[in-house]
Amino acid sequence: MFASSLYALATAATLVRASAIGSRSYAGDAVAANRLSAYDGVELVHVRRQVPDADTIHFNVLHHLSGIAPYFDSPGVGLQPQVPTGCSVEGASYLLRHGDIYANDFDYESYLEPFGSKVANYSSKTDFANFAPLSFLQSWSTPITNETEQVEKLTPTGAADAQALGRLFAKRYASLLASTSEGENVTLWAASSDRSTQTAQNFIQGLGSNTTTSLALQIIQEEEDQGADTLTPHESCDTYEGGSGSEQSAAWRKVFTAAPIARFNAAVPGFNFTETDIVAMMEFCGYEMVINNSSNFCSFDIFTPEEWLGFEYMNDIMYNYNIGYGFTASPALGTPWLSATASALGLGNGTINETTSTQSLFLSFSHREEPAFIASALGLFNDSGVTGAPINESLPTDRINYDRAWRTSRLLPFLGHVGLERLTCTNETGAQEGTYVRAIVNGAPIPLPSPCNQDGPGDSCSGADFQTFVQTRSEMYDFATACANTEGEDDISFFSNITTAMTPQQLQ
């Protein structure tokens, strides 16, 4: 149980997170609750600082912040997250993003720091009182006060959330943890950045609190010469460009920021609000939430729901070209994990671990880019998947496409995760007998595309079709070819090479 303001353990194994915007606290308000019902009887209820105004009572700002959203369970496509009747989970593998951080370096340098300095140096702060929703800026200062100690670093909330998610995974996959042979560790993997390793260590604390199985963590270095044998393939892909998507997203940014710029400058003309100021204010909504558990910037009195949707869409455009289907190599950066997972679950070219290991739960921690690569390798959130239309036509830069499948808020929140479950089903209760696989994104099952036929329990994919799916995707999206790499490995080997894994005690 967390004694801090982060979580309090309530009845019926329900975790409740108190919330407030400014002075308006409503910790018991169920309107904004996000229930992680996916985790079999355990509900992680984030009652998160959503102002329940009459006109916006069903709109949660924090579900539209893209890569700076506090974790929430994805709505998916409506499939039930519980294991289908007559089936059991015999193996699972997940790639998880790190937990809440104070800010990433790009957001800090491009938006947060310039806006914070601009407010601090503005000599007529009393002008903000001309527009009541912005009056708090008279005394506001940035919560990021030490770039070295905070930027790219895990917040206390991030650590607590990781522990909470670890406890939930321990409950959901208790049978997998228990099936590991006595004396054998269940190994987890993490990219070598502090935010990834610290997230994994906190997750392990939560996981270990509900299991007697021994746990260990293996650190995977983030090097450019590792090829595909890494948890950060964008770092070792020669064709990846970190700035991709900036031009396209900037075109939409100009459109959606026009209204708030005009509104704010009419009241406070001396400050001269700009496009980057608007983006900074919206980003502070997310970052202040995971730093202070509250933020005045999230108020609907400042930005309308439509403007928040514009902010979300700006990020969707950027990430489409950066790590999504608009980057043609994106699926190829996810196929090494897909192939390794298929083998680890006994459905690939190799066997589980290709050793005598009995481990059947595989959990890895990395950065915001990687869940998108895996989702694209799996063909999920794909606007062109059904129509066959060019992917970038689905994201115009002069208006929002409200029907798009590519929604990064549902894929890339802090602690966002993409996974695969291997199901074994019997016909005793009417379920189709055999082996099946289903994809899980932030707690929500999402059907895999062709050659999977959604013919299994819960629209899962048969084991045979899944093997064909993996082979087809791997042939279509080869890492070395797509990345023009001439060095490093073409596959992931660390699932079967755990010689450097350390126990929690060794990591201290």
Could you explain how this protein is built, in words?
This protein is an alpha/beta fold and 508 residues long. It has two domains: 1-63, no CATH class; 84-507, Phosphoglycerate mutase-like (Rossmann fold), CATH 3.40.50. The protein contains 15 helices and 13 strands. Strand 3 (20-21) and strand 4 (24-25) form a beta hairpin. Helix 1 (105-120) packs across helix 8 (275-292), helix 3 (156-172) packs across helix 5 and helix 10 (330-344) packs antiparallel against helix 13 (463-476).
The string of secondary-structure elements, in order, is EEEEEEHHHHEHEHHHHHEHHEEEEHHH
**CATH architecture grouping of the largest domain:** 3-Layer(aba) Sandwich
CATH first level of the largest domain = Alpha Beta
What percent strand?
5-15%
Shape: globular
By secondary-structure content and strand pairing, the structural class works out as alpha/beta
Beta-strand segment tally? 13
Number of spatially distinct domains: 2
The CATH superfamily of the largest domain bears the name: Phosphoglycerate mutase-like
Structure summarized in a few sentences:
Helix content is 33%, strand content 13%. It is α/β, with parallel strands linked by helices.
Topology record:
Elements: E1 8-9, E2 14-17, E3 20-21, E4 24-25, E5 43-46, E6 87-97, H1 105-120, H2 147-150, H3 156-172, H4 174-178, E7 186-191, H5 194-208, E8 215-220, H6 246-256, H7 258-267, H8 275-292, H9 305-323, H10 330-344, E9 361-366, H11 369-377, H12 384-387, E10 417-425, E11 434-441, E12 444-446, E13 461-462, H13 463-476, H14 479-483, H15 504-507
Parallel strand pairs: 2-5, 6-9, 7-8, 7-9
Antiparallel strand pairs: 1-2, 3-4, 6-10, 10-11, 11-12, 11-13
